[in-house]
Amino acid sequence: MPGTTSGRWPAKSRVVLIAMLLAALGAQQAHAGLFDDEEARRQVSDLQQKANERLDTVARGQMELANQIQALRDENARLRGQVETLSYELDADKKRGKDLYIDLDARLRKLETPAASTATATTAGQPTRPADTSTAASEAPRRATSDPASEAREYEAALNLFRANKLKEAAAAFDAFAKTHPDSTLTPNAYYWLGNAHYAMRDCRRALEAQRVVGNKWPTHAKAADALLNVATCQQELGDNQSARNTLEALLAKYPDSSAAKAAKQRLRK
Fold it and tell me: Fewest CB atoms less than 10 Å from the CB: which of 23, 188, 201, 218?
């Protein structure tokens, strides 16, 4: 009996030991499972935080981009407004310049017409000498057909066409006047405005021809300096820069005290 009893205890001990081992193993597995869940939650939390940070960065970038686009739109609108303003001012300056030329032209005609009338009256008051009979006879038809009042009306009509921006009609009217009245005191003015009309229609070659007539045929006329300046402008626009420079230098030499000479100096400095 003692031997049997003593033989059973080791078996129970083994059972208890096995039970304890199993319990310890289960506790370790439970602890490992708990550890795995916490690590997974931490990783998920980190990913969510990083994702939120990236979303915030993207949102800020989109906001900055939207602000930049709006700023560009505002700048574009401002520049467009400036361009429109400058275009309006340029058109206004062109109109004022045209009105100024027309006004100056009218003033010059008032000065020229009395001078021509005085010269005619002086000639008429002189006695006719026998030696001048043939000359007077040959000039009689031309003087008889010359009517300063009619010429002034024709010239004014052409000038009104130019003033109304009817450039093609004005050019035709000035050309007709110059051919019909080659010896009129208004003919230099007609050639000058004929050149301006062609220039306004972007026909620089014909404008150049008309302006050259003024300077070559009437070099002492009040518009000769301005005509020469216009010749240089046309030459430059046609790409003949050297000829334009030569013309400006000739302008300075011939008409140093004219307003056109001041403009020529400025161009030569460039």
Answer: 23
Helices (H), the chain: 2-125, 133-145, 148-163, 167-180, 187-200, 204-217, 224-237, 241-254, 259-269
Q: Is 221 in contact with 188 (CB distance < 8 Å)?
A: yes
Residue 250: is it exposed, middle or buried by C-beta count within 10 angstroms (0-12/13-18/19+)?
Answer: middle
Place of tokens 């439970």: 30
| Within-domain flag for 201 | yes
- Number of folded domains in the chain? 2
176 lies in some domain:
yes
Same domain flag for 261 and 168: yes
Do 90 and 178 lie in one domain? The reply is: no
Q: Which residues have C-beta within 8 Å of that of residue 159, sequence separation ≥ 6?
A: 102, 105, 170, 193
Q: How far apart are CA 178 and CA 171, in angstroms?
A: 11
Span 86-124, pLDDT tens digits? 554 455 455 555 555 566 666 666 655 554 444 444 444
Q: Summarize pLDDT for 16-71 with one digit per residue, the tens.
A: 667 676 666 665 665 555 556 777 777 777 787 877 787 778 777 777 777 778 67
Give residue 47's Cα distance to chain centre: 57
CA 211 to chain centre: 26
User: The whole model's pTM is what?
Assistant: 0.52
Residues 158 and 270 in one domain: yes
On whether both 86 and 178 belong to a single domain, the answer is no
Q: Report the 10 Å Cβ neighbour count for 27.
A: 10
**206 and 256 share one domain:** yes
> Domain of 84?
78-110
Distance CA 177, CA 151 (A): 8
